[in-house]
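Fold it.
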Amino acid sequence: MKAILTSIVLMISIQIGAQSTINGKVYNMKNTPISGANIYLEGTYDGSTTKADGSFSFTTTETGTQTLIVSYLSYETYTMAGDLTYMKDLTINLRDDVSTLDAVVLSAGTFSAGDNSKVNALKPLDVVTTASALGDFVGALQTLPGTTTVAEDGRLFVRGGDANETQIFIDGIRVFTPYTPTTNNAPTRGRYSPFLFDGITFSTGGYSAEFGQALSSVLLLNTIDEPDQEKTDVGIMSVGALLGNTQKWEKSSLSVNASYINLAPYNAIFTNRNDWIKPYETASGEAVLRKKTNSGLFKLYGAFDATNFELTQEDINLEEGAYFKLRNSNVYVNGSYKGKLNDTWTLFGGASYTHAVNNLNIIESTVKNTENSMHAKLKLKNRVSNRLKLYFGAEYFVTDFEEHFSDDNISNVAYGYDNNIAAVFAEADIFISKHLAFKPGVRGEYSEIFKDFTVAPRVSVAYKTSERGQVSLAYGNFYQNPSSNILKFNQDLEAQQTSHYIVNFQHNGDRRLFRAEAYYKTYDKLVKYDSDFTAFNSNFNSDGHGFARGIDFFWRDSKSIKNFDYWLSYSYLDTERNYRNYPTKSQPNFANTHNVSVVGKYWIDDWKSQVGFSYALASGRTYTNPNEPGFLNNKTKPFNNLSINWAYLISPQKILYASVNNVLGFRNINGYQYANTPDLNGNFNRRALRPALDQFFFVGFFWTISEDKTSNQLDNL
């Protein structure tokens, strides 16, 4: 018995002697103790948690080389591999986890709308629930600061840049003809339906090195990755009809939308200032095919539309008016793939093709132009760690433009150009901590038409000043070749260029967001010519220059008032240019000094309704009065527009929708047209350029047929 007890005591002594003690303290990077951190040996049950002073201690019977793990919420996991004999009196500093929701965001010059964005200025459904937008994503973005109200145009004018300076991308691939064709003093619309998109990024400046050929801004549209269910959407509207269907399979899905718009019935009820011979008519269709692979997602997007109309517009120099006829067709195809190569590398590749044809009759002239364009891109992403992500890529743009012109004096004269551009880019996301991040990048482009290579460095930095506030800075150089109306006549030019300087502050609270952003832009190598309009005999050069500076404010609040969501935006813009046929540096006639937008939406339970309003106020724009000395020497009166909408839920899947644009009937003036010659008193007569309609009324019925029998299009109205 004594021998047995002796053996037990000896075994216990040996076991105790084989135990190792692991101890130390855990701090953050500011040497503040962390309480409650988990410490353990990988693959064992041996471990502990830290005390209030950050200390820990535990014993283990393991021997040799082991891996010590230290983890705590909002901090990066710490790993230490080595012999247990060295794991004593440790001092461990945990670094902030930069991937947490409260980490700093690189956001200077950028507004995002999407489920994957940490800071949303807009939600995806805001694109089509804004009263003044009339279902157009561009119309919704015009309520954001940094944009300029050019009511007769309809495109995006951003921070002193004209509409050609903003480029649009779908799933990262360029869209060459994003707007439907129109006539003078009639706003265009975006070609693509917002119903197929769930993510929008609108950069008003300082954007990524991945994107080029845009002097002012880029708009990124992302199609839906995975629809939630099969459904059919039907819409009957006062201006036409639409039909959509989504089908899902195990690893793929297909969404199709088609629409037909004809303004003949509307014009018969509401007369306008145009003498329509054939009212506006367009048929369009879109489709997105998605296919999951083992490591990625393939998307194929296609869109087609055909538009035609014929009218005579009032013209002060033509007693019979100005005749205009248009027939247009546009095809756009976009394919992309994004997938993982391994745990750290991601691949993106895609290409798009555009075929656009315009047939125009303008007074006594006939014009036919055809554009064939292609964009191909390859991008690699290396996630080195949470703190370092590297991006590399290359892309190629091809544009073949051809135009034929005829009138009483000229027969079938051809103009055109080939504009091919090769580009490479590289940039990095560098997170020093969850409070400080950098994004340096560089883009190089070679233009075959100019035989010139440009290098554009870009950098942004963001610093988190408080739990919900941060400051961002951005700088970048940007290049863009002139547009078709110039290159078709002359290619002996240079790439236009600009530099952006941006400082941004934002506070992202609980369902509240405030942004303030100041910027300064310089322009160089802008195109100048010596004629009233670009023509084959114009003299062109690249001596134009200018600047734009201003400050933007944005406030959104969906918390203060129950069921009420609203946002306010204000922009101040000071800009001058000497370009085109300008004799001196002046404020361009598309620029407003002040722009204000107020948008609100309210859900009324008792009425089963969502009501909304949108108000826009813009200061006057410059124009030249030949009866007074000077160039762009006068300004129009301010622009005002109050629009309202109402969506009534008839049943869970049926909605009646109505909206009125400019409900108060403001008599807005977009500018003036002056006579080419003075009257007997030496004065040039003029007429006001007013919208074809002071108000626009819309009524629609929308019905959704889905698997769950509750989904509807309220979020899309």
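The first strand starts at residue 20 and ends at 28.
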